[in-house]
Inverse folding.
RNA sequence: GCGCCCAUCGUCUAGCGGUCCAGGACGUCGCCCUUUCACGGCGAAAACAGGGGUUCGAGUCCCCUUGGGCGCGCCA
């Protein structure tokens, strides 16, 4: 997929005609997990590519050897897969292309569009320091921009290894035509001669991004708006190479609930955390797409509808805050709309990751799955996440004698036991055991005893589930079966 | 400090000069349904940051202020 153009004569870029195939790319740096902002960026790229019949490439920006880890790469890949955002083609590892990056730069040097700079880190610090002191923007002052070779030789002799800097335009302005931000103008005097190659010869991010996006044929660069200024700098690099820039679309960042930058304390968890919390990928996608993008009042989109509806013009320019309450609500909608079988399958798939699912992991079996499926209609109405679902289904795997929570204990203590004792023989005498037959028996008892239904149903619930809340009690009776139900009632009575 | 971006209910947003005394969703509150809790139904409170313009008319266009955010690395 990556072609390696000859270094000497850079081939002219294919014209980005309207008919050209759309190529988007998601380019995370593997210095951490895939956080929620990155996930949304990936989603937008994926949706855009799918909508236009194009492809989304995945590139790992691992040119920072110090901070890149394989664990992070695995987490990113895993996160994308879980979210259902499949990339096209092979994963591109940026560092593997360092040779190509360096070659491209030597071409720029030959053309006088880049130059060697021997300024030391200490000099650079001093430069920034004095600039700050004098109230000037902290920028490279271009001191090696036009030095003669004698100075360079002297520096070489002193053992200094140069970085390669871009000879950027110093006057005029650079315009980024952004599909989300509109036309953004940057005065060139505010953009300095950025480093292309480090003194050890490795490429910087700025250079690598441009060369890779070009070589990969990226037609659309959709990324967080923290890169907006970078787009101007990268435009300079594109110009130096004589390449056409891709279409830029800088989407606003996602903020935490307090409006501040998303931090780990807020919602900047890895997507694996959302899986552990029991969210459905489809629900997370739906929530994420509505964060910063909208199409009128519409809230719910199936994946296919999302692909059809998505467009860059619907992306807003103001940052959005992450709101767990809404995500939860949306997840609840997805769960209630899902079939019983699908939900059991979702649980099964998420079982290794779900919090507090130990009892289910241990007891998982075809029989339990059958029980879960049977109980699911009543369960899914009451849960907003898979974890809540598991929690609500806890009575299925609870061992006799059941532990009673505080409220359940109170219900039993406040006269509940007497009702259970009176009810037990009536239930035991039932010829067949079903929700309907147990309900009839309970209602008959209520009739004769003069109690309210709730006065009997609640103790039953406590005895059968150990809690004060559960799905409809007759469904619980049916799912648990005669022996287990009678046993639990006897335990509690 | 300099540059850039942003600003409608608590939150996500609709609104692309008049049909907006601003609509939807989440959340909140109330009522109904009801064996619990949910779900569901009905209803309520809740916003155009402030100030100048432009215009017959501004949430919608322009400017300023204020408040957020991002960037200014031999990080990405």
């Amino acid at each position: 997929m990556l072609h390696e153009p000859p270094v000497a004569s850079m081939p002219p870029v294919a014209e980005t005609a309207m008919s050209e195939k759309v190529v988007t790319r998601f380019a995370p740096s593997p210095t951490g997990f895939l956080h929620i902002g990155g996930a949304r960026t990936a989603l937008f790229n994926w949706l855009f590519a799918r909508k236009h019949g194009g492809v989304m490439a995945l590139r790992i920006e691992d040119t920072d050897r110090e901070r890149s880890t394989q664990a992070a790469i695995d987490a990113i890949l895993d996160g994308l897969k879980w979210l259902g955002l499949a990339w096209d083609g092979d994963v591109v590892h940026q560092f593997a292309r360092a040779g190509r990056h360096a070659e491209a730069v030597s071409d720029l040097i030959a053309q006088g569009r880049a130059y060697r700079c021997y300024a030391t880190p200490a000099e650079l610090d001093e430069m920034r320091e004095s600039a700050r002191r004098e109230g000037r923007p902290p920028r490279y002052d271009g001191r090696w921009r036009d030095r003669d070779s004698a100075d360079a030789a002297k520096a070489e002799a002193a053992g200094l290894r140069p970085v390669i800097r871009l000879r950027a335009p110093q006057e005029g302005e650079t315009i980024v035509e952004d599909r989300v931000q509109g036309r953004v103008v940057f005065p060139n005097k505010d953009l300095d001669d950025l480093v292309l190659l480090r003194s050890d010869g490795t490429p910087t991010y700025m250079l690598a991004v441009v060369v890779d996006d070009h070589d990969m044929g990226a037609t659309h660069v959709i990324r967080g708006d923290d890169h907006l200024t970078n787009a101007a700098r990268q435009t300079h690099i594109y110009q130096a190479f004589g390449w056409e820039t891709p279409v830029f679309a800088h989407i606003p960042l996602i903020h935490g609930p307090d409006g501040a930058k998303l931090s780990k304390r807020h919602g900047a968890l890895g997507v694996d955390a959302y899986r552990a919390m029991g969210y459905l990928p489809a629900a997370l996608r739906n929530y994420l797409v509505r964060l910063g993008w909208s199409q009128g009042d519409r809230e719910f989109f199936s994946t296919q509808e999302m692909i059809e509806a998505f467009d860059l013009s619907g992306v807003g320019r103001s940052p959005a805050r992450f709101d767990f309450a809404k995500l939860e609500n949306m997840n609840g909608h997805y769960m209630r709309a899902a079939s019983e079988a699908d939900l059991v399958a979702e649980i099964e798939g998420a079982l290794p990751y779900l919090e507090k699912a130990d009892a289910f992991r241990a007891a998982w079996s075809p029989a339990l799955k059958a029980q879960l499926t049977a109980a699911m209609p009543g369960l899914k109405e009451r849960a907003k996440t898979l974890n809540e679902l598991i929690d609500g289904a806890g009575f299925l795997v609870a061992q006799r004698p059941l532990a009673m929570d505080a409220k359940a204990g109170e219900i039993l203590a406040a006269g509940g036991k007497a009702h259970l004792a009176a009810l037990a023989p009536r239930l035991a005498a039932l010829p067949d055991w079903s929700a309907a037959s147990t309900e009839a028996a309970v209602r008959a008892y209520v009739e004769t005893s003069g109690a309210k239904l709730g006065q009997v149903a609640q103790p039953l619930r406590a005895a059968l589930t150990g809690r004060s809340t559960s799905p409809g009690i007759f469904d619980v009776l049916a799912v648990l079966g005669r022996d287990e139900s009678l046993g639990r009632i006897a335990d509690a009575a």
About this structure: Residues 1-17 of chain A have pLDDT under 50 and may be disordered. Chain A has 21 helices and twelve strands. The first helix of chain A runs from residue 36 to 51.
